[in-house]
Design a protein that fits this description.
Elements (H helix, E strand, L loop, with lengths): L11 H11 L1 H10 L3 H13 L11 H5 L2 H7 L6 H20 L5 H17 L14 E4 L5 H11 L5 H5 L29 H20 L11 E6 H5 L1 H13 L4 E7 L2 E2 L2 E2 L8 H8 L2 E7 L3 H13 L5 E6 L22 H10 L11 H7 L2 H21 L1 H11 L7 H13 L7 H15 L3 E5 L3 H4 L18 E3 L4 H14 L3 E7 L3 H14 L4 E5 L17 H6 L5 E3 L4 H13 L5 E4 L14 H6 L3 E4 L7 E5 L3 H14 L4 E5 L3 H6 L2 H7 L6 E4 L8 H4 L4 E3 L10 H7 L4 H13 L1
Parallel strand pairs: 1-2, 2-3, 3-7, 6-7, 8-9, 8-10, 10-11, 11-13, 12-13, 15-16, 15-17, 17-18
Antiparallel strand pairs: 4-5, 14-16
Helix pairs in contact: 1-3, 3-5, 6-7, 6-8, 6-16, 7-8, 7-14, 10-12, 10-22, 12-22, 17-18, 19-20, 19-25, 20-25, 22-23, 27-32
Amino acid sequence: MTFESAPPLGDVWALTEMWKQWGFESLRRIFCKTRNLTHVKALIRVMRSAPAFVPRVPTCGALKRLSYAALFQAGYVAMSERLSLANALRALAMDAVQQANSGHPGAPMGMADIAEVLWNDALKHNPANPLWADRDRFVLSNGHGSMLLYGLLHLSGYDLPLDELKRFRQLHSKTPGHPEVDVTPGVETTTGPLGQGLANAVGFAIAETVLASAFNRDDHRIVDHNTYVFLGDGCLMEGISHEACALAGTLGLNKLIAFYDDNNISIDGEVEGWFADDTPARFEAYGWQVIRRVNGHDPREIEIALKTARDFEGGPTLICCKTLIGFGSPNKQGKETCHGAPLGADEIALTRAALDWPHAPFEIPDAIRAGWDARDAGAKAEADWNQRFATYAKAYPDLAAEFTRRMAGELPADWSATVQALIDQALAMDKPIATRKSSKAAIELLVKGLPELFGGSADLSESNGTDFKGHVPLRRGSLKGNYVNYGVREFGMSAIMNGIALHGGLIPFGATFLTFSDYARNAVRMAALMKRRSIFVYTHDSIALGEDGPTHQAVEHVSALRLMPNLEVWRPADAFETAIAWQQAIERQDGPSALILTRQNLPPQAHEAAQADAARNGAYVIHAGGVTPALVIAATGSEVALAVDVAKVFGEQGTAVRVVSIPCADRFFAMPRDARAELFPVGVPRLAIEAGVTHYWRALVGDDGDVIGVDSFGESAPYGALMKHFGLTIEAVVARAEALLKG
């Protein structure tokens, strides 16, 4: 039987009998094939009349050809107060993108109904205090849809006036092209590089769970919030989504709820040709609860799915929402043409009519504003929490004080004593030791006085030296700990660390081999951009790791990391400098740090406690050699000991050679010119030594100086043989220095 031979369209009883005879799938196939709008409307009425029918958005051409008005008339969606609230988001998105002549209207228009239900029914937040400790966290991982978030923040009452929406994507506005934390009130993390917001959300959920385990008591739940994340096809195509979501499922993070905007569109068009994954099955394999086939334009279905997710305690939840990108645009909905470009004035006029939105650009009726305003509810929610926290503080004053301190990002009152103990411990290390091992000793001392220090490694805990005494790894069902075994997931680890840092209450550090920092680089960049205190520990820092060969031997990595704005890179020469590096990384509040550590043992250098302040500045004289040097050698990390040995050879010959250790080149180059000149007097030849590419140091030594390093990939051989092969021995450096002195 074909549709044309079916009963008359007006005969609902007969059509219903046809439903019973054919079943839903057969009827749905006819629905997807017909091009007759009247037929489509009739079939929708029939399918909705059946008791077993669950509204859904079929992915077929017929539905994509329907305007919003046609869907409404057909009974597929109902005009309601909820829909009017969602349409306000759609209107603001298309108006702002049109005015900027730049942006992405499709995702905001497609996800507006989902956002409306979440923000008005479930999200716990206070627009007057975006930093309330127990607020729910909301992450827009598909950050190109930023106007969705800006519309939500504006309408719900955050300090984001309408004029800022009109300045979308303009210089110094509070509405940049992609959401940026600390720029827009209420934005929890900077998103845009797809998938990283999802990984940040995993970090938020880990932090919530760990802090809840540490501070909640049976009669008091002061840490009790959810993390919600919106994501799209692009986020799921990025490999980081696998890394982060597999770990989230393994750990069973039940306070993490993700909404998948399954609109079947990316920039290049319909995604079936390059993204045919069975996403629900994939997430079920991770250990997530998956709620399939939710109509992303039906508030009732979204409400039910959201309640199911919030009630589930067995792990994270993925809610798969079928949506139309650009929902409401008669000619562009469901197409890639509305993904990353303005709709155009004519299409916006048609969309206004289709959405039954007669208001002028950026005009929001008072009734709609009242429906969105979350200020009173938010103030009450926080006031209720404050009252509960006051009761908690009376029962557990020490815990309450500790929670307050940690969420404020303040270090303990006795921090200076901890630092002094750290320095004293390092100065007492009088035998050769690898800096990865002196780093482990530093962590073990620090964590005793800094309980918020929260570690991890990408499957290299012992090699990295991050498996400190007393570390307690998180495990499913036992999430009270201070350490994550991230597995072989360098990128996921780094982005999750950023989420932990953004949440507050913990100071994350995570480790891998330096050469694998390339896997994680964009997450490191995001930490620097967001000015967050993530501490990246990179060991096995040069060719000196030996036999594993060039695949594992970092050569260009230290210099490449130094080129990243707002990332401080520390390459310490011994236990003393390692202690300084850890202190500075922890005390730094405005950005991440990278600690570059050796596999091989390094001899301790002669230090005095007074040198600590000089080392904190990034560079200092570690070997004077005399009052007036004939040559100044700059060195970092493992090459400092080599430089000092070379200087001693010249000293025995009566030639004064100064050695300047530069544990942090970023801070050294930020010194005033006069301060740098005190270390490197004008007119004195300069030689730099570092077991990596030489380009970075050319600016310091000048055309008349020299740089000894490694400008090729390494080799597989024992450490000693490699040092000799690449000219990093006392004899080879002395020869280069003599040539430099001779001019």
